[in-house]
Amino acid sequence: xxxxxxxxxxxxxxxxVPKATGRDLPEWFKALEAGPGLLRFDERVNWxxxxxxxxxxxxTAIVHEHDLRRGARRHS
Length: 76
Hints:
By secondary structure, the protein is mostly helical.
C-alpha cells in the first residue's frame, strides 16, 4: 500500500510519534513484530489503531517505516 502523504509529512509524523504515543519507534517496531502476525499493510495499521489507540496517521507512518527498515535489512 502506498502512502497518501508526502515523505516530508511522513517524517513529521515519525518525529511526533514519541510525544504523541509515549513510545519511541523501536518500541513500536517490536510491538509489530510481536503482534498477531498480520501480513497486509492495512491490517497492521488497523491493529495499531484498535489495540493501541493510535491515530491513523501515526499508525500508517509506523507501519510504513517498519516496512522500509525491514526491507533495507534484507537487502544489505
